[in-house]
Amino acid sequence: MGSHLLDTTLLATALRDCGYGPFFAAYEAVLRVLAVPGSTAARAGKWQVLVAGGVAGVVGWVVTFPMDVVKTLIQAVPVYTVTFGVFEAGHGNFASLPLFTMHPAIHEFLPTVEFVAGTLGGMAGLAAGFPFDTVKVRLQKPELAGRYRGSTARAIAKIVQEERVAGLFKGISSPLAAAGLLNGAVFSAYALLLDIQVLGTGGTDPARASLAQVALAGAGSGIGATLITTPTELVKIRQQQCTGPRAAAAGAVVADLVRGVGVRGLFRGALATALRDCGYGAYFVAYEATARALAGPESGGAHKTKWQVLVAVGWLATFPLDVVKTRVQGSSPTPANPYRTTWSTIVYSYRNEGLRVFYRGLAPTLIRAVPVNMVTFGVFEAVVGVAGRDRGGRVREQGRG
């Protein structure tokens, strides 16, 4: 039994320390962005090293924190306490680590499982729907919209003809790199906010939360993720707007933005992004309402596998702000630019193109919603299911032999 615990602890520590890869990658990337032209990383100034080290530290801890929690819980709880119900199953094997079968009392306000499940689901969903996102961005950009008239299929065919299949995936590197952090943060924040609302008001089962509570938790998770979403989508949009054979690398886009107006340039369009991402409230409400309807009144929607749920309501509710965000982030904040702020973009777009402009690119977005949300929620539910817990965050009963 002791050797099993030692092996498990070493494995958790090794997995956590894989985070040194993103740590050093972030350090080097920031140094290169801040470097004076013609200089090398070895000749970086003290303030550049301090900034790069700080950013690398944040990135490293964000990536490794879930596994660090697992390692600490393994090391802090003796193996014999399995007989007292701290672990729901197993005898020190990796399949029964707290990451997967944590006792409800430990897990109540630590949605680690949701973070991991959201990470994997988000990355899978991103890859599934990215070509449609590229079409959407180009339809929303005034200078490019005229090139892709007709159906979404024709737009995809034109992009492939001019830029090959790789053209449909321009800009995927930045959201893919942030997908783990973004979707993990959204799903874990959603679970945490839902728990706080339900358990904080005397409830016992987050799976039976009201749709109003679901909406508030969803909106809060979206707004909270804006710090990640804004720079990620800004870089993505700048790359997707490139119609040449090759788009600028993500690092080059970041460097150009920072050298132009400083670090704040990475957060251009933050207000429009936050307003749009309030739509996560409608997004989760649509999902929960549909899931409960499919599950039937007897189960209350808590234990039904919901692979067939398709969600488009969240995008319909906030799509006009997505158009505004794309135009703001796809342009520079010069005084003569009509898209320099969220409000100026709304006013200028409406006066020159009418109300219909705020739903430009809706068709590819709705088509994209089908594979993206099927894959995202499908993977999310599968991981939560493997973790041995139901949708309400409670540990399922495990068989004891």
From TrEMBL:
How the protein sits in the membrane?
Multi-pass membrane protein
Assigned GO CC terms: mitochondrial membrane
The entry lists its GO molecular-function terms as: transmembrane transporter activity
Kindly report the protein's main subcellular placement as a broad class: mitochondrion
Gene3D superfamilies noted in UniProt: Mitochondrial carrier domain (1.50.40.10)
Task: Record the organism.
Answer: Mycena rosella
PANTHER family noted in UniProt: MITOCHONDRIAL BASIC AMINO ACIDS TRANSPORTER-RELATED, SLC (SOLUTE CARRIER) HOMOLOG
Residue stretches of each Solcar repeat: 109-196, 209-294, 298-386
The entry's family comment says: Belongs to the mitochondrial carrier (TC 2.A.29) family.
Q: Name one Pfam family in it.
A: Mito_carr
Q: Which SUPFAM superfamilies match?
A: Mitochondrial carrier
Q: What is the protein's given name? A: Mitochondrial carrier domain-containing protein
Which UniProt keywords are present, listed alphabetically? Membrane, Mitochondrion, Repeat, Transmembrane, Transmembrane helix, Transport
Its annotated compartments are: Mitochondrion membrane
